[in-house]
Amino acid sequence: MAVPKTVGLETEYGIVHRGASEPNPISASSLLINAYLIAAQPSSPVTPGRGAVNWDFTEERPGHDARGGAPADALAPEIETHLVNAVLTNGARYYVDHAHPELSTPECADARSLVVYDRAAELIAVRSMSAARLLLPEGEEIVVYKNNSDGKGNSYGCHENYLMSRAVPFSRIVANATAHFVTRQIFCGAGKIGTEAAGMRVDDAGYQLSQRADFIEEEVGLETTLKRPIVNTRDEPHADAAKYRRLHVIVGDANMSQVATFLKVGTTAVVMALTEDAAAGRELRFASPVAALRQVSRDLSLRAPLELEDGSTITALEVQWELLAAARAYVDARGSDAVGGEATQTVLSRWETVLENLQQDPSKLAGQIDWIAKLRLLEAFRERHSLAWSDARLRALDIQYHDLRPDKSLAARAGLETLVDEAEALRAVSEPPHDTRAFFRGRCLQKFAAEVAAANWDSIVFDVGEGSLRRVSMAEPNRGTVDHVGAMFEDCDSAVELLRRLGSADA
Amino acid sequence: MAEREQIRKPAPASRERAVEDAPAVSERSSEIDDQLDDLLDEIDEVLESNAEDFVKSYIQKGGE
Do B61 and A408 touch (CB under 8 A)? Predict the structure, then answer.
């Protein structure tokens, strides 16, 4: 039986330090995040290594490969432990990754909840920019972009995470995940002018559906920064490793549209659940998955025939119709407990409507799908000013679609439908989800931040001044919810009392 | 290069004719056109003023 699809997003944002004589993206990212932490917790000034609750790296193993075998050390991603790295009261992690600010949402129980926390992450970025402005000299500003490429061959990711059963063979995950990831771009691509693929000139492709397709070079692999694969094999469950794996998805775009984020995560969660239960229809294997991924990204007609291993062809839309049919059959037969409960029916019906519209008239989706919304703006702007596609103003529009400043964001002006109201997202800036272990993490930080020495996804370390640190393990992503521990937090007035109630062992 | 492209204006005449032929649709589509016009006015206002420099200087380090 499929395990509940706990989901999360890790978004690396583009960053620009305007007005700086020698801009440095690492220090700009640090300043941005520290400015937020100071503004959010004015009573505890942030100094390096203390103040905000720090991330605990002891359980991080990004070099482990889901296909088994010992990882080659040279391939293991580097962890930069010295940079700002904080845990927020909503259960999120906010940190500097390489040369970008990155925010990982707390664990969410369904796609709708994840949309709430993704919007909360945007609001945190907006507040961070405002807070940074107060610290910077006149004329300087740090600006954050929610996109995945600079148009010059550099990419940064928006990674998705899905909790999966350890029992499912990884090869089965690869087959279904590849079919979905190659084709789901038709509704979750964020759109981009030109191409950055190796060996191509920027104008060799006009407008394409995806920001990321140009950067995907392998079918399956451990890498995330070069030779990026369609299916990433990082095997770091951040949970009981005997029971769980975490599918770490690096192929997708960051979305401005809430509908796109909802569908990206909702459809993938269902496809992964039916994969676990071996309930997929036929297994679709592309003759060349990487070529197919790029072909789909560059085919605005959505009708290009993609070659399958058996020599037949299929379109991206046809693959999506097949996956939707399998998803419907799966939910009819097994219910939706493993794929987010109530939100699932909305995922299925929206998935169907979006595919219908993509088939009949994609322009109808200009209020829901990023690549279509952006294309509409580009075409209208181009017509008004009679511009060539190579005009810098169109490229500026492309980038500025993803600008998170409310007074500059073009996505915010594109008439995109919203799925969650702003008040709910605003609450989620400081309040954790109630239905995953993020609740426990968030409440600990809300109530007992002074006693929390460090935290990470699956444990919290307390320093209650009794001479030893005490680690509380959270190996079950769906425990530590308000139902499990809500009353306990109400009863406990101190971390010592909480630890006594939990009966935790010394670390 | 941009100036040369500006000679190629769209042909508004054909669009007007289509509107005459289909009065029922025209009301809705002219409403949508108005909305789009307002949106384009706004984009004109907020779009980075020196697009060329902005695009050139938007350089990111690879991430992940």
Answer: no
Whether residue A148 lies inside any domain: the answer is yes
Residue B62 lies in a domain: no
Domain range enclosing A294: 7-427
Domain match, A452 and A397 both: no
pLDDT at site A80: 54
Residues 6+ apart with CB under 8 A from B23: none
Res. A201 pLDDT band, cuts 50 70 90:
confident
pLDDT band at A320 (very low <50, low <70, confident <90, very high): very high
**Across chain A, what does the average pLDDT equal?**
92
Nearest-CA residue of chain A relative to B49?
Answer: A393
Q: Which residues contact B16 (CB under 8 A, 6 or more apart)?
A: none
Closest chain B residue to the Cα of A79, Cα to Cα: B64
Q: H-helix or E-strand containing A103?
A: strand A100-104
Which residue in B5, B9, B58 is closest to A16 by CB distance? Answer: B58
CA distance A230 to A220: 6
Boundary-marking domain end, from A385, A407, A427: A427
Residue A479 has pLDDT above 60, yes or no: yes
* Same domain assignment for residues A421 and A465: no
ipTM: 0.90
Give pLDDT tens digits for B33-55: 788 899 999 999 999 999 999 99
For residue range A371-420, list pLDDT tens digits in order: 999 999 999 999 999 999 899 999 999 999 999 999 999 999 999 999 99
Q: Are residues A471 and A409 in the same domain?
A: no
- Would you say residue B6 lies in a domain? no
User: CB distance B47–A393 less than 8 Å?
Assistant: yes
Closest CA to A477 of A457, A462, A491: A457
pLDDT at position A69 is 58
A49 CB contacts (<8 Å, ≥6 apart)? Answer: none
Query: Is residue A43 domain-resident?
Result: yes
d(CA A17, CA A27) in angstroms, rounded, equals: 10
Task: Round to whole Å and give the CA distance between A173 and A337.
Answer: 20
**Pair A411, A445 in one domain:** no
Interface A-B, measured as beta-carbon pairs within 8 A, has a size of 112
A97 is an active site residue: yes
CA distances from A280 to A141, A176, A329 (A): 50, 8, 9
